[in-house]
Amino acid sequence: PLSPLSRTPHSPAHQYRNISMVSLKLQKRLAASVLSCGKRKIWLDPNEVHDISMAHSRQNVRKLVKDGLIVRKPQTIHSRSRVRTHLDAKRKGRHTGTGRRQGTREARLPSKVVWIRRMRVLRRMLRKYRATGKIDRHMYHELYLKTKGNTFRNKLHLMEHIHKAQAEHKADIVVTAKAETRRENNKAKRARRSEQAKSEERLRAKFAAAAGLKVAEEQKQ
What we know:
The protein is mainly alpha-helical. The protein has nine helices and two strands; from the N terminus they run ααβααβααααα. 67% of the residues lie in helices and 3% in strands.
């Protein structure tokens, strides 16, 4: 409460109580509408209260804005420096202990999300290999089904399987080619033997016929 001395007509408190402040709520609302911002972003020049209070339209407010009596306050700076520092530390593994974790392991990183990511990585790799000609469409289909069946752990595992399968395929091709060559050689050898046997048979028949003629001539004599 005020002291008895402050209640005197000539005291400073009594003078302040009789002063009526000018309301600038209308001007602040119009300025916020003109400047497309909130009323808390509007600054009114306290030294030009009388001129500002005379503005009752948006046109008058625009003129005051142009004159600099009404100003839109700048955007409040909200620094993310500390946030970036904290995230950099978390990428290194800090601040991730048991006391910092909220939620189960499945809730923090669902196993389905892990599966989807792995499938997308492996299938993208298979499409790339098929497009570049490293695997044919038959091997692509076979590996696609194996990938779906959870055969491969990661890209390296799939890559090693592809290299191994291709090496086995090349070895099979070499073995097949050697077997085919051996088969052709054996076939040619059998053909030669058969031809030789026929030739010998013809010679024997010829000699037998000649011997028979000779015997017949001797008997005639």
